[in-house]
Amino acid sequence: MSVSTPTCMSKIKFDFNPAPGALLLKASAILDKESALLDAVAAESTPTFENTFARIFYEENFNESDYLQNSTKQLTRIDVYSKLLAVFQDKDKAQQLDMEDQMLMERMIAGYKRVGALLPTNKQEILQTLESRIAEITMDISQRTECNSRHVLLTKEELAGLPEQFFVNLQTKKVGTIFKYVVSASGSDAVSVLQYASAEHTRKSVYMASSPIGPSDMELLQEVADLRRVRAIFLGYSSHAEYIFKDMAVGTPNDMLSFLKNLYCQLSPIAQRELDQLKQLKQAHMESLGQRYNSFYEWDIPFYKRVFLENAKLADLSGFSHYLPLSAVVQNMFAFIHSILGLKFKRAANANAWHEQVELYDVWDEKNNSYVGQLYLDLIARNSKYGGAATFPLKLGFERKDGAREHAAVALVANFHKPAGGESILLSHANLATLFHEMGHVLHILLSRTKWTAFNGVYVNRDFSECPSRLFEQLAWDKLVVKVVAEHHITGESIPDKVLCGLDVAKEQFIGLKYLREVTQAIYDLTVYSKPDTANVCSIYAQIEGNMALRNTGKATVYNWHTVRGMIKGYDAALFVYLWGKAVSADMLYSRIYSKGIFNSEMWNEYRQTILQPGGACVIMDNVTKFLGRNPQNEALLKLVGLY
Question: What span, in angstroms and rounded, lies between the C-alpha atoms of 418 and 438?
């Protein structure tokens, strides 16, 4: 049964409805303050860590807009750099600082090279032009792809096979004399159509409309790839991937490409056998209907995967939804987190947020009755809202000069569709996994205990940034955990074992195809950005997606969002981190946490102290090694995909 959450008055206050012009005034004040601060640092006659690095970053700590962290203005001030460099090069005094302060210096000194601040002025101007154009293109594509405006108009007959519940929430539109349903080509609507619509042309129409990326976008992404390559060469790197990997802990781009290609070779025959099973099923199905089998396409996969599992009486996760009402799942997830980490989530009486649907929770550590931070939940889909699921830091935690703690605030955003008539929002199992994934990010941000915001939570080495989220996501497949968070949306009864048993089976089915796609997406991303010369993004896409990914879309070219999203969403030359995060997190979960039992709070506390708490203020892979008691290994990931 769900656990009620007490209400309280929130400790952190934000103004989400500023007066017109207030943000511009605030931004102007920030810029003025930053200029004065940098002038003061540049004027120091006897530079020390305290009056240079600490002075700059302590101001950043208090800057809730996070401007200084993302600003390159301070990195273009050579007069400031000379003072910082003098402090950095005084090794005797530097060694007296703690590790986090030393890492802060190293990061900022390295930052000057990464933005080209040490180049001649004319080359700096060229770099600034490149940066502006890259930002302009990626922001434009990102904003357009986040809009949930892709729809397909379909009749009831064309939607044959969909359960009646599917139609409850749909709007209709009159086309001539016929009323058609307005079906979203993204999110849960699209998933349902691809799984249940018996008419192939219906599945195809939704699939074809599902990609937000078109040929004109790929032309822009070609420009972005070229600009990033030129920037890297300007800065002394052989490729954009080499530039990005300077912030990685996994070696070189070639090392990672070798790992990915080796994994692909192992997965390929498994994925091909799975695909052949589905092809045979479609062929038999078409023959039973007296229709000619033509080919097997991408839009056939979800439908025939479901049919295969049902025919074999293996697993049907559709029944999970009755036991996953959103409101109860959230409270039960909080109860689970309380049992393993001792955190209590207290709902604020008034969120005063950016929308009335948003809920606000203050988070407390029960062990020492200390305040941890603030969580905003914005989980319900609505028009003109960010279209995916993501975690957004609103304020990062840090240590004040007096030793007191400034606490973090974070927003977890998702898009779960609300039924008409006030009925409960029922999650799919995929929705549950998404919720757990984002909660992993939330915990990483809230539980970090760093001195500087520059190292808080997700500001770790980029290749580790998805490890805590992927670890928590995997708990959505654990039957004991699901037993805790799930309850019937009407009766409140626990989820039956006969429904739960489908988890293990569903997890193992078609896993080769699933991971093959994830591997090929990472290979595409790294291949584009590892080339020292021009890389044709469309040709490489056709080669990898058409051949290696076993993706057949007929004569039409449909650009898969998940393959190109890294180029837009800040994962350029780094899309592999999701797979790498799965490998490292699976190792930690199966080798350590499961060894003591999933509800063992002592083990989770060790994970909290060793992995989450230090944030980026440590050599994170050293901490992973410390937690594991050995170097990380890939066996846990290989077990997940049936290769070990």
Answer: 20
Q: What pLDDT band is residue 184 in, cutting at 50, 70 and 90?
A: confident
Is the per-residue pLDDT at 68 higher than 60? no
For residue 549 the two structure tokens come to 């990914």
This prediction's pTM: 0.88
Task: List CB contacts of 3: < 8 A, sequence separation 6 or more.
Answer: 331, 332, 334, 335
Rg (CA), the chain: 26
Q: Where are the alpha helices (DSSP H) in 89-214?
A: 91-94, 99-114, 121-145, 165-168, 187-196, 200-210
Assign 343 to helix, strand or coil: strand
pLDDT digits (tens, 9 = 90+) for 131-181: 999 999 999 998 888 765 688 999 999 999 998 878 877 889 999 999 999
Residue at token pair 């860590």: 49
Question: How many angstroms separate the CA atoms of 479 and 499, rounded?
Answer: 10
492 dihedral zone (left: phi>0; alpha: psi -120 to 50; beta):
left
Token pair of 453 as six digits: 């915001």
Encoded amino acid at 623, one letter: N
For residue 6, is pLDDT > 80? no
Token reading at 87: 């402090």
Identify the sign of the CA torsion 64, 66, 69, 74: negative
- Pairing label, strands 343-348, 359-365: antiparallel
Residue 415 to residue 189: CA distance in whole angstroms:
12
By percentage, how much of the chain surpasses pLDDT 90? Answer: 60
Nearest Cα neighbor of 33 from 79, 81, 65, 8 is 65
Within 13 Å, how many C-alpha atoms sit on residue 152's CB side? 23
